[in-house]
Write a structure and sequence with these properties.
There is one protein chain. With 267 residues, the protein is of the alpha/beta class. 49% of the residues lie in helices and 12% in strands. It is built from 10 helices and 7 strands. The chain has a 7-stranded parallel β-sheet, with helices on both faces. The longest helix is centred in the middle third of the chain and has 25 residues. The structure holds NADP nicotinamide-adenine-dinucleotide phosphate. Belongs to the short-chain dehydrogenases/reductases (SDR) family. This is SDR family oxidoreductase.
Length: 267
């Protein structure tokens, strides 16, 4: 795909920080977009900016009945050429307190099921799937056990599907943002990022990268220079990263244990 003009896109997590920035760019590119999230009034507000280009479908993606209804809605609207699996939740807490069902269902199972449901339509239209992963889909990080497990899974699923569809004209893409300034990160995560001097992107920077990737068709993209190096280092020499992160463990734990700060994102 060389341009997005007239393409039909399904964007999940459209009401979130990255989703809103992506929607803005998709609309400006002339794409027609079906947007989802759980909050219909928020979706309606977003659609009001370009009512002729944006259709809304409110749904909790962890409920499989909603996924079937979303497929039917998109079919009625004329189908889609691009599926962007962007919806996600996170939690920063000790492993014992992680809400694993919600983390896996939202970040991993929902995008896999949506992919399966939309695959026949996307194959017919030589379409594109773009899965939004994370740096934490390649680097296990203390305090994010459930989120890392889900995003590692999403990266594995995407890679397997890319290879399975390599003899078709469909494109399957994976984008791994680094820390980004959105509501998915609660005050404890934001404080940790500041303490560790972690580079943080704006949602607009991630949206620029995502649109670029949709146009270029680059299979995998990891945002952030240092993050890129860490991802490669972790794949080749995990003990080096064990040591680097081990040196920060006390600081990381201080941000989720006994600080009085609300530890987990609302999942
Ligand atoms: N921000 C970061 O630091 C960062 C870094 C790396 C990767 N990412 C990834 O980027 C993607 C977008 O995140 P963001 O930063 O934009 O987060 P965000 O602002 O919290 O937005 C999350 C979006 O997901 C939707 N969502 C959550 N649970 C849902 C469910 N059960 N059913 C339907 N929609 C649901 C939310 O909509 P409602 O709440 O209205 O339903 C919202 O639109 C996620 O996949 C995230 O893992 C983010």
């Amino acid at each position: 795909m060389n341009r997005l003009q007239g393409k039909r896109v399904l964007l999940t997590g459209a009401s979130g920080g990255i989703g809103r920035a992506v929607l803005k760019q998709l609309s400006a590119s002339g794409a027609e977009v079906v947007i989802t999230g759980r909050d219909q009034p928020r979706l309606k507000m977003l659609a009001a900016d370009a009512p002729e280009q944006i259709q809304t479908f409110a749904a909790d993606l962890t409920d499989t009945a909603n996924l079937d209804a979303l497929l039917a809605f998109c079919q009625q609207q004329g189908g889609i050429d691009v599926l962007i699996n962007n919806a996600g939740i996170s939690q920063f807490s000790a492993a014992a307190g992680q809400q694993l069902t919600a983390l896996i269902n939202t970040n991993l199972l929902a995008p896999m099921l949506l992919t399966q449901l939309f695959l026949p339509m996307l194959k017919q239209r030589n379409g594109t799937i773009l899965n939004v992963g994370s740096t934490f889909g390649s680097i296990g990080y203390a305090g994010f056990t459930g989120y890392c497990a889900a995003k590692f899974g999403l990266r594995g699923y995407t890679e397997a599907l890319q290879r399975e569809l390599a003899d078709t004209d469909m494109r399957v893409l994976y984008l791994a943002p680094r820390a980004t300034d959105t509501a998915i990160n609660n005050t404890a995560v934001k404080a940790l990022n500041r303490a560790l001097k972690q580079g943080v992107d704006t949602p607009e920077q991630v949206a620029n990268a995502l649109i670029e990737q949709l146009i270029s068709g680059k299979k995998r993209r990891f945002l952030g220079t240092a993050e890129n190096i860490f991802v490669r280092l972790n794949a080749l020499f995990p003990s080096v990263v064990d040591n680097a992160l081990g040196g920060k463990l006390k600081q990381i734990k201080q941000h989720f244990i006994g600080t009085g700060v609300k530890n987990s994102a609302e999942v």
